Amino acid sequence: MTNVRLYILMILLTLMLIFFQYHFWFDSGGMRDMLQIKKILAQQIIINDKLKNQNETLLLQIQRMQSGQETAELRARRELGMIKKGEIFYQIVQNEK
């Protein structure tokens, strides 16, 4: 009789182990989800690093523009086509033939 109980206990423990392993690997919040979250996290870290570098570049530009008028003047000339008071602006137009 004890052998039968031991056999049933072994089967029951094996079924419980299979049940818990299934939930550990495949159920919501299991290993599969964790691996997907790790992959998403790695991608987000890369995106954050790129944005951090862009922010640092923008902060440097802001600091340069605040520190001196030369940078703002140079940018206004190049990007906006502005000229100083009293300057003469020459525009060379080439014929398209």
Concise synopsis of the structure shown:
The protein has 97 residues and is an all-alpha fold. It is built from three helices and no strands. The mean pLDDT is 86.
What does this structure look like?
This protein has one domain (2-76). The protein is rod-shaped and about 110 Å long. By secondary structure, it is mainly alpha-helical. Helices cover 76% and strands 0% of the residues. The model has no long low-confidence stretch (mean pLDDT 86).
Low-confidence stretches: none
Structural class, judged by helices and strands? mainly alpha
Mean pLDDT level? 86
Oligomer: single chain
Biggest sheet record: none
Global outline: rod-shaped
Q: Helical stretch count?
A: 3
The percent range for strand residues is: under 5%
Helix content: over 70%
Radius of gyration: 35 Å
For the termini, the CA-CA separation is 107 Å
Number of strands: 0
Listing every helix as H and every strand as E from the N terminus to the C terminus, the arrangement reads HHH
Element layout with pairings:
Layout: H1 2-26, H2 31-67, H3 69-80
Give keywords.
97 residues; mainly alpha
